[in-house]
Write a structure and sequence with these properties.
The complex is a heterodimer of chains A (about 210) and B (about 425). Chain A contains 13 helices and no strands. Chain A is mostly helical. Chain A starts with a helix and ends in a 5-residue tail after the last helix. The longest helix of chain B has 27 residues. Chain B contains eight helices and 24 strands. By secondary structure, chain B is an alpha/beta fold. A five-stranded parallel beta sheet of chain B has the order 3-2-1-11-24, covered by helices on one side. Classes of the chains: A mainly alpha (about 210), B alpha/beta (about 425).
Amino acid sequence: MSDHNQHAVAHYRNNFLREVEDRVEDGEWVKMCMQCGVCAGSCPFGPHWEHSPQKIFMMIRAGKREEVLASDSMWMCTSCYNCIVRCPRKLPITHIMHGLAHYAHRLGVAPKGQPTREVARLFWNNLARSGRVNELRFSLAMYFKDGFVQGIKNSLAMQGIGIGLMKAKRLNPMEILGGHKCRDKDGIHKMIAKAREIEERKQGFTS
Amino acid sequence: MDSIATNQTILVVGGGIGGMTAALEAAECGKQVILVERNATLGGRTARMNRYFPKMCHPTCGLEINLRRLKGNRNVRVMTMAEVSRVAGQRGDYTVTLQLAPRYVNANCTACGDCAAAVEAEIPNPYEYGLSKMRAAYLPHAMAYPMHYVLDPSIIGTADAEKAKAACKYDAIDLGMQAETVELKAGAIVWATGWKPYDASRIQPYGYDRFANVITSLEFERLADPHGPTGGKLLRPSDGREAKNIAFIQCAGSRDENHLRHCSRICCMASLKQTHYVREAHGESGKSTIYYIDIRVIDRLEDFYQKVQQDATVSFVKSKVANIVEDKDGNPVLHGVDTEGYHRYATAHDLVVLAVGMEPETNGIKLPDDMLLDSSGFIEGSNVSLGDEGMFGAGAATSPLDVNRSVQSATAAALRAIQIVHKTSTVESK
């Protein structure tokens, strides 16, 4: 992973804007930002993260590569689309934020232990295994992500809800054994592999 | 009427500052001109301003000069309450259909005002952008031309109309007037149809239609006018309290893909000008705050901007306001993040003035097919590739222009129209 990062640094030298335009989904929109600040003011999470979208876009132009990629801002986006709706230049801000998050993750420089990133990672691994989300295993993975003792504590705290879900037949305890999956699991895996191959080529990770 | 108009006639559509100028420039060159205006008076939006920038002079002055020129010129025929409904033909030979709305008042009117005193019905005053009401028999404004009263069609057939008629000592009220359709000939047409403010209620986060103390720059212009609804006092609409801490929000509708794509060009200057009104009203105790993306004052007007920057009562916040909420006292609270340091703010003001953008008055109106419009609907002229070059835009109908530039544009359009009718007459005399 860090090889990719070094390679990207070497390839784009100090032109981080170019790098974002080439490699980040919807990154070519970044230069259209006119720094009006409506996105930052409209964001419901605004006060809770360090860099507003407006600031991220300016940092990209200023070549602050490490600060941008290590920022937690992209991971805080809840996809409410307020910014996209109000942006006077019609920048797909939500999509750019997700694109940046994905790119930082792919380079291995995204913030470690950032909760939303961790959830996203667990969710993806859970889903990609069989083509279906196994909710029981996903929940357990979430509970135990901070260690065994914390996992037991989390499980006990959520006990009531778990039992309630089981009684309402919303949660099957047998799912722990592997659970339901897609009919053609191998097909799903092949499809994901192919999609990844295309994406890697597009983003310049492979030639 | 048909007899006076020939294919040597220049038709000017719109009687604002641009249309008046185009008509007069052509008429003073000896051409026959018909000036048609949809409203009951000439003067357009200029007549409803308090002051012009950059010299801060009163519109009465500029209009007065033009009205004097008009009264002294036999070549211009003014038709008010007339709207163009159809244009047929091509350059040198247009047939124009006009719809004339009844004024219910004839030329005997001396503007004495007895009819207005007799009438009880009240209607929102369009010349004050609805900020006040007026009697349904009215003189549009003090600078009205022609200086004749108008009866609003809503009172026709009611007792009010009869009262107005009975009150008139000059037999000027004619309740039997009907709408008419007339056709006339013209060799060239100048479209000086002007502009209208962008509908501020469409900018949902600013709550123009929800908060009484969020107004447009044009309404503020009326508040500052000594002849306006508040007698020139800056009183806020919700409680009539004097507004001292006033916010100006730039690009309200302009430079926005969701609203108007273009920069309306004059709004920055308009807000800078309006900070003068605040200073004049309150001196050092007033406060103006301009929220902007960038201040776009064009060429020499930069001087004006620099002077305002030196005014300690005026501050600038580089930020497009994200949204407005109202606190319990009815003060609008502006939320956003500024670009110089990325500080989050939530600032209460007494009054918020939206510097609304300009869009062509003709948006929503069907223009002749061979008219070329830009992506915002401003008139570029008639389509030369269709073999027709006898129609021109003038003034703010062609792009967002201030009074000064509108007059320049109108003068240019007059010259082009003169060339067309001149060519036509040369061909005919051969």
